[in-house]
Amino acid sequence: MTRILKNIRGDRTIWAIIALLGIFSFLPVYSASTNLVYVVENGTTFGHLLKHAMLLLMGFFIIYATHRIPYRYFSGLSVLLIPLVVVLLIYTLIQGQTISGVNASRWIHIPFVGIGFQTSTLAGVIIMIYVARYLARNKDKEITFKQSIWNLWLPVGLVLMLILPANFSTTAIIFTMILTLTFLGGYPLKYLASIIGLGILVFALFILTAKAFPDAFEGSRINTWVNRVENFSTSDAEANYQAEKAKIAVASGEIYGKGPGKSNQKNFLPQSSSDFIYAIIVEEYGLLGALFLLILYLGFLFRIVIIANKTETIFGTLLVLGVGIPIVFQAFVNMAVAVGLFPVTGQPLPLISAGGTSIWMTCFAVGIILSVSANREIELTKNKKAEDEEHPLSVLHEAIG
């Protein structure tokens, strides 16, 4: 362990924020798991806590292993992994079955481990790296719409189209983050407007086609999306059951909360340990707990911007922004759903919610950010060493020696 700690590199503040999020997550996950145990009748509270601990431990190993890899290697790796991601998404999509009433086309089962792997989370990270690579390689070139369609938007569109039938919210978040990254990367605005229009048109055609031929889209979640949006704009308490329970939890938390483990709504709120865990946190820890988490995510965003600004390569800058901003954006979406600002999306709270691949892919992204940060530290150390060797006193010291 001591040897591992000595080999930790990268931004220390990010390491501290990630550690705080991971440690804090044990309390709400353990508390909210009573819903799974006594309502869903799935396992024990200690069992869910142990599973969460193992997932986090594996996640921190992923961070450590990833941050030791020079970040320039992720550029080529994204090109190699795009075909694998497409194959995994196709395999996931054609399963056509449900597990515990949930659409299984969002997960594949990992043999011998007993954990479901949500392929869209891997696809989201890989496609953001790929976009950062494209923008960095074409930064000083004149980008044409035709060339970018084939080299950039075709892979992006293919990945998004394979995610869309089962997971609209993830598709929307990834598409929004890609648009944000391309804007920051200097992609021509006139082309970007065309891409946005094309994306809206494709989505509208998908919805109309699914409505016209419902049998062909039997496994999709289109009706779920429509119902969530419609319910969000109505005051029907029964239709908005999850959102109403979340609002009750948030309102009852007040300033200081009810205390750890004392949430009442965790026994009535579905997905209380994952999608709606922020509502449970506010109920148990009040406004202070809510602000604590918000500050941690804002601090994470602040450090991302600093690292991106200090990185000397365009790819490094775009890479940090591409994999880092989605983490914060997803956190804000989860919080907004819990307090009733957004319709229900099914997005977990990064590094807090119980889950498997969400934790791992977030840790993979954090590891990439730390790899970029660590590379800068290495370069600064080398430059300082070179300056010390060239200093007149060092030459005199060698002559005397």
Please, could you describe this protein's structure?
The two termini are 39 Å apart. It contains 14 helices and four strands. Strands 1-2 form a two-stranded antiparallel sheet. A two-stranded antiparallel sheet has the order 3-4. About 1% of the residues have low confidence. The chain is mostly helical. It is globular. It has one domain.
Topology:
Blueprint: H1 2-6, H2 12-39, H3 45-67, H4 73-93, E1 98-99, E2 102-103, E3 108-110, E4 115-117, H5 119-137, H6 145-163, H7 168-184, H8 189-212, H9 222-232, H10 241-253, H11 277-310, H12 314-338, H13 357-390, H14 392-400
String of helices and strands: HHHHEEEEHHHHHHHHHH
Low-pLDDT residue spans: 99-103
What radius of gyration results from the CA coordinates? Answer: 23 Å
Strand order of the largest sheet: 1-2
Could you say which overall geometry the principal axes of the C-alpha atoms support? globular
Q: Brief description of this entry?
A:
With 401 residues, the protein is an all-alpha fold. It contains 14 helices and 4 strands.
Q: What key attributes describe this structure?
A:
two-stranded antiparallel sheet, 14 helices, 70% helix
